[in-house]
């Protein structure tokens, strides 16, 4: 799978750029999407508002980590993996037995969006299983990304040449598209373009980037981890659907 979001929407952490300082071997969003389509001819590409893209292919799909996509009420979701407590979650959200994992996480996201105040970590912390997913709400330009606690599903993110956020479960696409400006998406975390990285098990603690340097002080890579010694003032919360839209407008200015 592949997802590319313009810098104004994706708001990628600037630390992703650190290993690439002084180099320019990343590609444009259009080049990255073209490479994905030419590599996986069965792929479906969703052209989202403001030059954003989401794409999915079932080639080389793991039977235990299948990929699925759903579009509901202008909410786009790509889900990879499987939920162990899917029956319980269907009952909790009042969904039919046919509801897929992607449908369930979209419903959980809508609870966050529409029933504020609601801490974003609550959307993910009750999900059990091996998964990673991306949600994009086209109505509010809201991006919501998550990965399970163990990092069971391959999932990386990086920055394109123009600063766009790039996400994929295929390391080759990330390496070729982002060069050194990439990292593994941190397990047990969610990313929202309004509030950044949050650990859903430790929501009161910051998630920080840690740089790996060589003997000369050059940054070779970065990774993100929870800083258990530093607390944030409160759990990041989001207001009503109107407030989400307001936040999106501010980000786009």
Automatic annotation (TrEMBL):
Q: Which Pfam families match?
A: DUF3700
Q: Domain DUF3700 spans what residues?
A: 2-226
SMART domains (UniProt xref): DUF3700
Which residues does UniProt assign to the signal peptide?
none
Q: Where are the transmembrane segments?
A: none
Q: What is this protein called?
A: Stem-specific protein TSJT1
| Higher taxonomy | Eukaryota, Viridiplantae, Streptophyta, Embryophyta, Tracheophyta
């Amino acid at each position: 799978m592949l997802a590319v979001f313009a810098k104004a929407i994706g708001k990628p952490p600037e630390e992703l750029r650190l290993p690439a300082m002084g180099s320019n071997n990343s590609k444009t969003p259009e080049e990255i999407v073209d490479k994905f389509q030419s590599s996986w001819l069965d792929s479906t590409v969703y052209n989202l508002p403001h030059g954003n893209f989401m794409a999915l292919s079932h080639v080389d799909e793991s039977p235990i980590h299948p990929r699925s996509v759903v579009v509901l009420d202008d909410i786009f979701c790509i889900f990879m993996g499987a939920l162990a407590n899917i029956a319980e979650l269907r009952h909790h959200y009042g969904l039919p037995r046919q509801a897929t994992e992607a449908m369930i996480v979209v419903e959980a996201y809508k609870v966050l969006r529409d029933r504020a105040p609601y801490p974003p970590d609550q959307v993910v912390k009750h999900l059990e299983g091996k998964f990673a997913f991306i949600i994009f709400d086209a109505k509010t330009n809201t991006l919501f990304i998550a990965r399970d606690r163990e990092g069971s599903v391959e999932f990386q993110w990086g920055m394109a040449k123009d600063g766009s956020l790039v996400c994929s479960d295929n390391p080759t696409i990330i390496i070729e598209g982002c060069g050194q400006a990439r990292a593994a998406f941190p397990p047990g975390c969610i990313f929202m373009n309004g509030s950044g990285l949050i650990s859903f098990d430790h929501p009161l603690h910051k998630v920080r980037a840690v740089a790996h340097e060589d003997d000369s002080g050059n940054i070779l890579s970065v990774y993100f981890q929870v800083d258990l010694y530093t607390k944030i003032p409160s759990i990041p919360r989001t207001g009503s659907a109107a407030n989400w839209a307001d936040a999106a407008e501010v980000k786009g200015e």
